[in-house]
């Protein structure tokens, strides 16, 4: 069974940093591209970053470019999102999603709250 | 960026009756490889999103056949042939033809 489990969320002050993790199991993690998607409280879904299976291709939404960094460790079956210079508008539940024919498997999400 | 517009915002439906959701993209979603990367996701209350349909009309594994997708180019539709109580939630279309990936604003399906 495919499982994705996010962790690392929490309360952080504006300007602070957090590192999110996504632990994958039940499939060959190294063979799949991955996405991070977030959802602000009561709002819709927003894609924020993509990493290919080889880490050779990476994309970000403009609003996080230069502040967020996506990475993966295939030996640890893990996906990461390093978030720096956090703003109030980054407050959201962050999901990791496996990309195959589409974003076919999602984790339960981890809540990031940016507030003083 | 490709803008995805969903209608309606809300769809109150009687149990057992059909429901239909429309999604329009600001430009064609036909990729240079010939595929159209339009998918539909369901988000039940308090749950993460779940893939229902990929590449316009392909039902994902385990998705009931009352869900169907259709369309081409810039206009797409998700249909639920007979709404059941477990179908309550928000439905999103999503395009993966071009980065940044973008979602529609969501359509809330609720029972009358």
Walkthrough of the structure:
The complex is a heterodimer of chains A (116) and B (112). Chain A is mainly β and 116 residues long. Helix content of chain A is 0%, strand content 53%. Chain A has strands spanning 3-7, 10-12, 18-25, 33-39, 45-51, 58-60, 68-73, 78-83, 92-99, 103-106, 110-114. In chain A, strands 2, 4, 5, 6, 9, 10 and 11 form a 7-stranded mixed β-sheet that branches. In chain A, a hairpin with a 6-residue loop joins β5 and β6. The relative contact order of chain A is 0.32. Chain B has strands at 4-7, 10-13, 19-25, 38-43, 50-54, 58-59, 67-72, 75-80, 89-95, 102-103, 107-111. In chain B, the strands form 2 sheets. In chain B, strands 2, 4, 5, 6, 9, 10 and 11 form a 7-stranded mixed β-sheet that branches. Chain B has a 4-stranded antiparallel β-sheet with strand order 1-3-8-7, with no helix packed on it. Chain B has 112 residues and is mainly β. Chain B is globular, with a radius of gyration of 13 Å. Helices cover 0% and strands 48% of the residues of chain B. Chain B starts with a strand and ends with a strand. In chain B, β9 and β10 (102-103) form a beta hairpin.
List the helices and strands and how they pair.
The complex is a heterodimer of chains A (116) and B (112).
Chain A: E1 3-7, E2 10-12, E3 18-25, E4 33-39, E5 45-51, E6 58-60, E7 68-73, E8 78-83, E9 92-99, E10 103-106, E11 110-114
Parallel strand pairs in A: 2-11
Antiparallel strand pairs in A: 1-3, 3-8, 4-5, 4-9, 5-6, 7-8, 9-10, 9-11
Chain B: E1 4-7, E2 10-13, E3 19-25, E4 38-43, E5 50-54, E6 58-59, E7 67-72, E8 75-80, E9 89-95, E10 102-103, E11 107-111
Parallel strand pairs in B: 2-11
Antiparallel strand pairs in B: 1-3, 3-8, 4-5, 4-9, 5-6, 7-8, 9-10, 9-11
């Amino acid at each position: 069974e495919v499982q994705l489990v996010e962790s690392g969320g929490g309360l952080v002050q504006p300007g602070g940093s957090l590192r999110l993790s996504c632990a994958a199991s039940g499939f060959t993690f190294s063979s799949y591209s991955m996405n991070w998607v977030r959802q602000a409280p009561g709002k819709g879904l927003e894609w924020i970053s993509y990493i290919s299976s080889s880490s050779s291709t990476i994309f970000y939404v403009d609003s996080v470019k230069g502040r967020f960094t996506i990475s993966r460790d295939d030996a640890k079956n893990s996906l990461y999102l390093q978030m720096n210079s956090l703003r109030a508008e980054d407050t959201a539940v962050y999901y990791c999603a496996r990309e195959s024919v589409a974003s076919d498997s999602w984790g339960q999400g981890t809540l990031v709250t940016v507030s003083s | 960026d490709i803008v995805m517009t969903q209608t309606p915002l809300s769809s109150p439906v009687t149990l057992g009756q059909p429901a239909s959701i429309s999604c329009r993209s600001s430009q064609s979603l036909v990729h240079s490889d010939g595929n159209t990367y339009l998918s539909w996701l369901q988000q039940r209350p308090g749950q993460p999103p779940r893939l229902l349909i990929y590449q316009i009309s392909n039902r994902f594994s385990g998705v009931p056949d009352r869900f169907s997708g259709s369309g081409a180019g810039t206009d797409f539709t998700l249909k639920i042939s007979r709404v059941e109580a477990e179908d309550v939630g928000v439905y999103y279309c999503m395009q993966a033809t071009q980065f940044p990936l973008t979602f529609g604003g969501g359509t809330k399906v609720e029972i009358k």
